[in-house]
Amino acid sequence: xxxxxxxxxxxxxxxxxxxxxxxxxxxxxxxxxxxxxxxxxxxxxxxxxxxxxxxxxxxxxxxxxxxxxxxxxxxxxxxxxxxxxxxxxxxxxxxxxxx
Length: 99
Fold this sequence. Notes:
By secondary structure, the chain is mainly alpha-helical. It has a domain at 32-99: Cytochrome c-like domain (Cytochrome Bc1 Complex, Chain D, domain 2). Mean pLDDT is 83; it is low at 3-18. It has five helices and no strands. It has helices at residues 2-30, 45-51, 54-62, 64-70, 85-96.
């Protein structure tokens, strides 16, 4: 029982860290062009989450020019970001939380 309680506690702490980490990455890199639920310069996270999967989101962040071509866009306004693996993980999860 003690092991299970520790496991649950660690899971909850990790979930909070991931959620806060996603918001931090959003505020650092994304907020100038994207908002969570409202249209800005770029689409809202709600719209992105309704249309894209995790791999497409990660690809658009790390290599927007190539992914834009694959998705059939004629041009791309999104800059390429050099996020580490953890930052990509938390921002992807954060975006998909608006689904």
